[in-house]
Write a structure and sequence with these properties.
It is built from 11 helices and 13 strands. By secondary structure, it is of the alpha/beta class. The strands form 4 sheets. The chain has a 5-stranded mixed beta sheet, with helices on both faces. The chain is globular, with a radius of gyration of 19 Å. Bound molecules: oxa(dethia)-CoA (UT7).
């Protein structure tokens, strides 16, 4: 029999970032850059960087424990664990299975999604549909990256941009049908893949002495191509998500876009007509944490008291492969 539909709500949020902070001045000792250029072109002032030996799953675990505590849900109550990441502990198994084990639970479905910076919202959309259809009750959704492990610390055009961290939410059925996830808009454009990717480590260029020597195991990016596609696509996804919920930009209480570059965030906010005070920004303190950026921002916005019951949130992400996702959520 087909299950009944119901609405999914975010019940708990948590985040965890490494203690170590790397400033723009620290970076200027590694590559030919400076604080003024980085702030002007990106808005980034610092980023958090994990210590050698630390694993992505360590940060996923810390973020998950906070989200579970806020939701009042135990790990054994979870039906599903799903993590958006491009920097899992290992190529396989899914880091979600390692997080499951570290949480001291077992049995529930666990998998990762590879959608670059859109990995968290892609994952949340999957969990939402399982819960909406009543297949499952509770899901742990994580967005996490240790990008410092795949950044080329000799390439000034990329190494200044990225940071490490994790964010997590626990989602479950909403008790109030007015509240929860209202709409989705998701997309990708595979034609853009060469503008942002890591050439080494996959089946085309498996690890070899040669691939290491050629620096293939690092992020390669055509920054200005990605910039233009990001602005256009973030605007499109946000507009469609609002339309799908029967809402307008002026209904948005807090816009939480992917935190890649302050200029992208400002351009998208302006194109959408959302007032600057309703746009959440923390890229200055974390850099671009890819799949982790939206759940870290959510945790911070909540901690700062910027989200109240009944508020309309618009979450919006963009990443490699031009993956993009936006969702409207009534808190
Ligand atoms: O998460 C989604 C994926 N990523 C993104 O969303 C990133 C999107 N792209 C961007 O944010 C921007 O394109 C960047 C911040 C990466 C670059 O900014 P830009 O304004 O597009 O600069 P550019 O690449 O056009 O470079 C301008 C100049 C170049 O010098 P010349 O050729 O004009 O002499 C670069 O060599 O700036 C130079 N440059 C730097 N200078 C100092 C590039 N990186 C640096 C640096 N410090 N770190």
């Amino acid at each position: 029999m087909l299950p009944t539909l119901r609405r999914t709500a975010i019940l708990g949020v948590g985040s965890a970032v490494p203690e170590r902070v790397m400033t723009n001045d620290d970076l200027s000792k590694l590559v030919d850059t400076n604080d003024a250029w980085i702030i002007e072109r990106t808005g980034i002032r610092q980023r958090h960087i994990a210590e050698p030996g630390e694993a992505l799953s360590d940060y996923c675990l810390k973020a998950a424990q906070k989200a579970l505590a806020m939701a009042g849900i135990t790990p054994d109550q979870l039906d599903m664990i799903i993590t958006g990441t491009a920097t899992a502990d290992y190529q396989f198994p899914a880091v979600s299975t390692i997080v499951q084990h570290k949480l001291g639970t077992s049995g529930q479905m666990a998998m990762d999604t590879t959608a670059a910076c859109s990995g968290f919202l892609y994952s949340l959309s999957v969990a939402d549909h399982f819960i909406r259809c009543s297949t499952y009750d509770y899901a742990l959704v994580i967005g996490a990256e240790l990008l410092s492990r795949i950044v080329d610390w000799e390439d000034r055009s990329t190494c200044v941009l990225f940071g490490d961290g994790a964010g997590a939410v626990v989602v479950g059925p909403s008790e109030d049908e007015e509240r929860g996830i209202l709409s989705w808009s998701l997309s990708a454009d595979g034609a853009t893949w060469p503008s942002l990717y890591m050439p080494g480590g996959g089946c085309i260029n498996p690890a070899s002495e040669e691939s290491v020597k050629d620096r293939l195991h690092f992020i390669k990016m055509e920054g200005s191509d990605v910039f233009k596609t990001a602005v256009r696509t973030l605007q499109e996804r946000a507009e469609v998500a609002l339309e799908n919920a029967g809402l307008k930009p002026e209904d948005v209480d807090l816009f939480v876009p992917h935190q890649a570059n302050l200029r992208i965030i400002k351009a998208v906010g302006k194109r959408l007509g959302i007032a600057e005070e309703n746009v959440f920004v923390n890229v200055d303190r974390y850099g671009n944490t890819s799949a982790a950026s939206i759940p870290i921002a959510l945790a911070e916005a909540l901690g700062e008291g910027r989200i109240k019951k009944g508020d309309l949130l618009l979450l919006d992400s963009f990443g490699a492969g031009a993956t993009a996702a936006a969702t409207c959520i009534r808190w």
